[in-house]
Design brief:
It is built from six helices and eleven strands. It has 232 residues and is an alpha+beta fold.
Length: 232
């Protein structure tokens, strides 16, 4: 079923940092922003963190660690700006700076290697469309059964997805059709949202907005964004 969705506004990604059980690190917040190509593929990552004992600091190492080390990932909770502002105030930081100010705290940009899209699946789009694209949105952390059920309800999943899919959905606007499947990948806590885009003549601008909406929705369900790749 094709469902409506609100247009996304581009904002920073916020995370709460829980205290280290071993007492080596305090609670705090992490702020990130991916740099992206026009088609929404990730090319790099900016980040900065704040904690009461050290103020704002470059957090490239932390950002890498939460995507590769389970112990670091366990301390990170994706959240929205309002919740991050509440934590910042509660921990003694006062008012969370505006996003244009937060961007001035970015110090170490981490490049993400971008390669030319591979040609997977049929080269020609179905009749009525002029281009077929396939994106993979990768996420870390796990989903509870009730979170998967909530996504299935939100997307009106019918069970018609590809093999291994736990939730799927569809959306169409401007003559462009989006079809996606959510599945677990790898041996660790990782999830992939595979999105097939069938482009209509007037729908190119819908691609980054729709992919951003899907990314933000999965963050709201507790997943940490890793990267966005394009396979076709």
């Amino acid at each position: 079923m094709i469902v409506d969705r609100p247009r996304s506004s581009r904002t920073l990604d916020y995370h709460l940092l829980l205290p280290d059980p071993g007492g080596q690190a305090e609670a705090g917040i992490l702020v990130e922003e991916f740099t992206r190509q026009d088609d929404f593929c990730a090319t790099g990552l900016h980040s900065t963190s704040w904690r009461p004992d050290g103020g704002w600091w470059s957090s490239a190492t932390l950002s890498r660690g939460l995507r590769t080390e389970p112990a670091v990932l366990a301390r990170v909770v994706p959240t929205g700006r309002a919740e991050a502002a509440d934590a910042y105030r509660r921990l003694g930081g006062g008012e969370l700076p505006p996003e244009d100010v937060l961007r001035t705290y970015f110090r170490d940009h981490q490049p993400i290697a971008a390669t030319a899209p591979l040609r997977l699946g049929p080269a020609q789009p179905p009749d009525g469309f002029f281009e077929r694209r396939l994106y993979r949105l990768l996420f870390a952390k796990d989903l509870r059964a009730e979170q998967v059920a909530a996504l299935r309800s939100r997307w009106r999943t019918t069970g018609g997805g590809t093999s291994g899919s736990v939730a799927d959905g569809r959306y169409e606007s401007g003559g462009t059709r989006f079809i996606w499947d959510l599945r677990r990948v790898g041996r660790s806590l990782a999830w992939a949202l595979d999105v097939t885009v069938l482009l209509g003549t007037d729908g190119v601008e819908e691609v980054p907005a729709t992919l951003a909406d899907l990314t933000n929705l999965l963050r709201q369900h507790g997943l940490v964004t890793v990267t966005t790749e394009r396979f076709a």
